[in-house]
Design a protein that fits this description.
This protein has about 800 residues and is mainly beta. It is built from four helices and 49 strands. Strand 8 and strand 9 form a beta hairpin.
């Protein structure tokens, strides 16, 4: 009752400030009964019970407030409806002599939906749900999620693909966050990190194709991975243990604890994963009309991953709170690689061959600290301040032994010994402030941010001559990169009858300095960009909505891309960064349509200037090729998708199906490959007897042609079961990923060089995971907060 009184007082104060009420006006607010927030676009109908000619309908505004004016005296019945909530009916008497005070209408979540969207899904939640502004993957309780990892989950999202170890959403780049905080890596390192994050620790994944000005301008789209939280006062915990197998065994275990009273929330967790996995990569390159080089690289990686966090949230009073979050991981990775290369001439005759044996060891340590302060004043204004520190420390060592053979298979010379030692120490410091204020004309949001990043990569390559190790100056490089970003944004939103409008602008001023200590070469850059965004939504009815949005964004690159160091694979191939790379600028337009909350349609177009493109070139001497990056003039990306969701068999089967296509074209003769790519994905969730849940999913992509790449068709199928045990306090999940072992990346590079790649990362696994929850299972969640270094940490890459 105390909470309810506070809420009513808050709502009534807000209404009074917005409305100069007349005696015959009727003013109220529609609010969620649990979340205690206003509901915009709720439909309110009023009818005079004695004179039915006096009837009217209106909708609530962005704060949930509604008003009827010039109503005659009398007794009225009013009804309030909002999709996903129970209908509310009330009675009221109006009298000119006595003004009717503003009043709240609290709606409760519906236990049933419209017949077209039957929500027996409360017991059986679909893996994928869709709204006009985002797609959500409901990972928690998914039988397929258990024993898997975050990278696998993201690749199950419709339209998400992997290209050159980077995630793309229908041809657009992606900025990945975790609980609004960064994943701290990009490219291959982002992939490695997400494979260490257990999928059964994830609650949901939000995919936002056209985010607002509040988000960093980095990236064409945003993916936010939200980790599991708890719900009420008390103490509880979760224990997880699992085992799986592909070609090798793997296992995982973890524990999380949460305690909360009226003012303090303490929480922490520890997770461990052991994984051994193979990668089989084959390439066939035509050097000229008569000579080809075939390389077969078999890589076995063992990972021991430890991740941990500890946090404190403290409520100073009902309006103000602060908190501290310590988070980090320590990851150990060993690898054994055999690279067998064969040079053949006309007639498929062996000219020579070589074997490169690589033994590598790496250790990654990345602690981070976040401190936040949040206060609400004047009933509705809110200020949040975040201060962040992040460190990424890496130790990396590889030993290469190369044996050379002539065409008869006899060793032709002494083995070549090469090794590298590549330590890195990277830091990010950031402070942000975000302010929100409702007003009579709409809702305002504004914020500022400053971030300082330093990456220090010292790559030392040595080769053995006789019994001595000497520095290989052609590969060694000490590179220091510094970046400062200063940003500010302002955003405005308002609902006018059936229209909702959001407009914002973000300005980011960037200063960079790349210093190759080895080459005594410094590259500086400074630029200011302005990023506007506009979104308009029209609710034609409760069953049909239209949306149109525009966003300008930027793609700054992972620090490995601007670092000119060499990554050695064999004597025939290596990669190298480019310190002169410029960021990409993107202008995106998206149209969306929702029908009966069952069919969702999206059409999008993005124009990219200074587009980043992979390039391949011949080394100055020998048969080696160098892969690098360069800026091209521009590129255009067109995309479209339709998602259809249906509840079948009286809610026991929920099917979510997405079909679509995209077309990405570089506007350059050297990167002319382009064709329409079609894709289809289906996810089916089944409710079986005895609370058993089953899930079956699959996806297919037709050939992808973009830039220098031609990617062959891809498809996969996954299945799983979840069974409650121990009076539903525990669960057993069993699943098989990539049932038919079809996840193979086949790529042709036909411009600049002529190469065919056949890359197979182990993808078929059988997993069995046990989860047990103890204590009070309704502990209120630790506060979810967004730190100020999503952009920079998301780009951190040190190989």
């Amino acid at each position: 009752m105390k909470t309810l009184s506070i809420l009513i007082a808050f709502l009534l104060a807000g209404i009074t400030s917005f409305a100069q009420q007349k005696n015959n006006d009727l003013v109220g607010v529609v609010a969620d009964s649990l979340k205690q927030i206003g509901l915009p676009n709720a439909s309110v109908h009023i009818l005079n019970t004695t004179d039915t000619t006096h009837a009217a309908t209106t909708t609530s505004d962005a704060q949930g407030i509604f008003r009827f004016s010039n109503l005659p005296d009398g007794k009225y019945t009013y009804t309030v409806t909002f999709v996903g909530y129970e209908k509310y009916t009330g009675n009221i008497t109006l009298n000119h002599a006595t003004p009717t005070p503003p009043f709240p209408v609290f709606l409760t979540a519906a236990t049933k939906k419209l017949a077209a969207v039957t929500v027996t899904a409360a017991a059986l939640k679909p893996f994928i749900t869709q709204s006009l502004d985002k797609m959500t993957l409901n990972v928690a309780q998914s039988p397929l999620a258990a024993g898997g990892n975050a990278w696998d989950v993201l690749l199950r999202a419709p339209g998400v693909t992997e290209q050159n170890s980077n995630l793309n959403l229908q041809g657009k780049s992606i900025n990945v966050l975790i609980d609004g905080r960064p994943t701290n890596l990009s490219g291959e390192d982002l992939k490695n990190y997400l494979t260490t994050l257990p999928a059964n620790s994830i609650d949901k994944v939000e995919i936002i194709s056209n985010p607002s000005a509040k988000y960093d301008a980095q990236g064409g789209s945003v993916i936010n991975i939200k980790l599991l939280k708890n719900k009420n006062f008390g103490t509880n915990g979760t224990i997880t243990a699992g085992i799986g197998t592909g070609k090798y065994l793997k296992d995982n275990a973890g524990i999380s604890l949460n305690y909360r009273n009226k003012k303090i929330n303490l929480y922490g967790s520890y997770d461990y994963q052991y994984n051994k996995q193979y990668y089989d990569n084959v390439s066939n390159r035509m050097v000229d009309a008569n000579t080809s080089i075939v390389q077969d690289e078999y890589d076995i990686r063992k990972r021991n991953n430890h991740s941990y966090k500890a946090g404190l949230d403290y409520d100073i009073n009902k309006n103000t709170s602060f908190g501290v979050l310590l988070r980090g991981s320590t990851n150990f990775r060993d690898r054994d690689v055999t690279n067998h290369s064969v040079v053949t001439t006309a007639g498929n005759n062996t000219d020579s061959s070589s074997n490169v044996y690589t033994q590598g060891y790496a250790r990654f340590f990345n602690p981070s600290v976040n401190v936040y302060y949040k206060t609400t004043f004047d009933s509705a204004k809110e200020l949040t301040i975040n201060a962040d520190y992040f460190n990424y420390n890496k130790q990396w060592n590889d030993d290469f032994t190369t044996h050379y053979y002539d065409k008869t298979g006899m060793e032709s010379q002494q083995p070549f010994l090469l090794r590298d030692n590549s330590p890195a120490n990277n830091t990010i410091r950031s402070i942000t402030a975000d302010y929100t204020q409702p007003s009579k004309i709409g809702k305002w949001e504004a914020g500022v941010k400053t971030a300082f990043t330093t990456t220090d990569n010292n790559v030392l390559w040595e080769q053995q001559a006789g019994n001595k190790w000497t520095t290989d100056s052609t590969k060694t490089n000490h590179f220091i990169y510094k970046e400062n970003i200063n940003a500010a944004y302002i955003s405005f939103s308002k609902t006018i009858k059936k229209y909702s409008i959001q407009a914002g602008v973000r300005a980011e001023q960037t200063n960079t300095e790349g210093n190759s200590v080895t080459l005594n070469q410094t590259t500086k850059n400074s630029y200011l960009n302005v990023f506007p965004n506009l979104a308009v939504q029209y609710s034609k009815s409760a069953m049909q909505q239209f949306g149109l949005s525009y966003r300008r964004s930027i793609q700054r690159f992972g620090y490995d891309i601007v670092n000119p160091f060499i990554v050695y694979q064999s004597q025939y191939s290596y990669s190298q960064g480019n310190p002169y790379i410029q960021p990409m600028l993107m202008n995106s337009i998206e149209f969306s349509h929702s029908y009966k909350y069952q069919v969702f349609t999206k059409l999008g177009y993005t124009h990219i200037s200074d587009v980043l493109a992979p390039v391949y070139k011949q080394a100055p001497s020998g048969n080696a090729i160098i892969s690098s990056y360069d800026n091209l003039n521009s590129a255009d990306v067109y995309s479209g998708s339709v998602t259809w969701m249906k509840s079948l068999l009286k809610g026991k089967w929920i099917s979510v199906n997405t079909g679509g296509a995209f077309y990405a074209k570089y506007n350059a003769a050297s990167q002319a490959n382009a064709k329409v790519t079609g894709f289809f994905s289906t996810n089916n969730t089944f409710s079986l007897p005895h609370q058993v849940k089953a899930e079956l999913s699959g996806s297919y992509y037709s050939p992808i042609a973009s830039g220098v790449y031609l990617i062959h068709p891809m498809y996969s199928v996954n299945g799983g079961l979840s069974v409650p045990v121990m009076k539903s306090k525990g669960s057993l999940a069993f699943n098989v990923t990539d049932i038919f072992n079809t996840q193979v990346m086949k790529i042709d590079v036909t411009q600049g060089v002529n190469i065919h790649y056949n890359n197979k990362a182990e993808s078929r696994f059988v997993n069995l995971v046990f989860t047990y929850k103890f204590g009070n299972n309704k502990v209120k969640a630790s506060k979810t907060r967004k730190t100020g270094i999503e952009d920079e940490k998301g780009r951190m890459s040190t190989n």
